[in-house]
Amino acid sequence: MVLAVPGQAAAQQSSRPAAVNVPEAGLGSVLPARKPGGEAPALLAAAACPPSGSGRAACLTPVPAGSLPRGLVREAPAARAGVAPPQWCEQSSGDRVGVRTAVCRISGLTYSTYVTSGGTRRKTGEADLIVLQYSYGDSGMGRIGNQIEVSAYGGWGDALKASVKGSSEKGGSCKVNGSTFPSKKLLPLNSWRLGESFFDTTIRNPGSQGKCMTKWNLTLTNPTYSSAAAPYSFNDFRCDNNTAGRPGVGCVVPWYASVLWYSKSRYPQLASHVTRAQASGLPGATFAKPLTRTTSATTVRDNRRLACGDAPSVRQKSCDEYPIAQSQQGLSSGGARRSFTGCNFNRVPAGTGPRGASACMIKATENNAQGGLNTQFFRSQRVLNGDPFQIRIN
Q1: Which residue of 94, 244, 296, 323 could cross-link 329, Cys pair, CB 3.0 to 4.6 Å?
Q2: Is residue 374 included in any domain, yes or no?
């Protein structure tokens, strides 16, 4: 994927690549999820609405996304430039929604104009706005795209005479590569006004990593009225040159728990063990209850020893532990060992609950293949120490 620089957008529209590369089957997930602990965009308070010298004032007031009319993003005409946000952006409802290489948020604004005369304040107009933020990157590149789109879908009076523009800022381990959001009229209704910016990570040295905050400052201007401004920021991308076996820089959304898929048809015994272990209450099957990566050799060793250290000798089989040894939820974190019928651990009882680990003897060929699948997944998704991930069966 090539992330274009502002100014190249119009020329590249017809051949512009997709915003997010779809991972190979088995290596991740493009199922969107909400960021844990949803966060509303920071806006100027409505009370901070001083009049200009002429007694005219303009204000921006946040609108809960849940109260926005449904279908606004889907029904409005597409922007004339930029990357088309994915349909799952509509699931935002004010929260961040994302996948491993993209994040989106939809929120609302009310832009109001007032005139104060003789000590009396009178509203002279109102515009109903929808704001769509979309940021995207690539696990194999050090560039992040961040665009913001504004559309007026209703209103009256002087407020609809306004124009919107934007400027971008960076924070953390990145720099602005290019940015454009010139002043554009809000009208006509249901048309998108686009700002597009690109940020390059400053992470270079092997073993390094850092977050990149991307920010837009929206400003609405209106003849004879004071300006009204609101900041919109994302701090969701981490760029690193710290992924084992994958030299070079890439950027991902670390809070998104990508899915490590195991094929039931190719690895039936492995799939059966994982399915039964998760059904007994052990975590890792959902975004809400993921596993957490560990790169500690001591933790990995202890997880394996506690789960499989006394494994029986069974021809052409080896011991599989769940949660996998490369997770913080293994037996080294506490809990009891459990097993199931047909796993050859006859003296280990079945158990339930979220703590502990399961041990099962499975085909050695499947167990060996699992190690390769895990390594390939961690590399492709840049799953570093402390990152959440899921394991599912397909």
Answers
A1: 323
A2: yes
Q: Cα–Cα distance between 191 and 150 in angstroms, integer?
A: 8
Answer yes or no: do 35 and 133 share one domain: yes
Domain boundary among 225, 252, 279: 252
The CA distance from 18 to 1, in Å, is 7
Tally of structural domains, the chain: 2
Q: Which two tokens stand for residue 295?
A: 């790169």
Number of H helices, E strands in the chain: 5, 19
Per-residue pLDDT of the chain (394 residues), as tens digits, is: 344 433 333 333 333 333 333 333 334 556 899 998 755 444 444 445 666 667 899 999 998 877 787 766 655 454 445 788 888 888 887 889 999 999 999 999 999 999 988 888 899 999 999 999 999 999 999 999 999 999 999 999 999 999 999 999 999 999 999 999 999 999 999 999 999 999 999 999 999 999 999 999 999 999 989 999 999 999 999 999 999 999 999 999 999 999 999 999 999 999 999 999 999 999 999 999 999 999 999 999 999 999 999 999 999 999 999 999 999 999 999 999 999 999 999 999 999 999 999 999 999 999 999 999 999 999 999 999 999 999 999 9
Give the closest residue to 110 by CA, choosing from 129, 91, 93, 96: 129
Same domain? For 168 and 147 the reply is: yes
- The sign of the CA dihedral 325, 328, 334, 337 is negative
**Which of 232, 252, 272 marks a domain boundary?**
252
Same domain, yes or no: 97 and 175 = yes
146 Cβ partners below 8 Å, 6+ apart? 133, 134, 135, 168, 196, 197, 198, 199, 214, 216, 234
Task: Give the Cα-Cα-Cα angle 63, 69, 71 (nearest 5 degrees).
Answer: 125
296 and 200 within one domain: no
Strands 120-136 and 143-157: antiparallel
Domain that holds residue 350: 258-393
Q: Is 2 within the bounds of a domain?
A: no
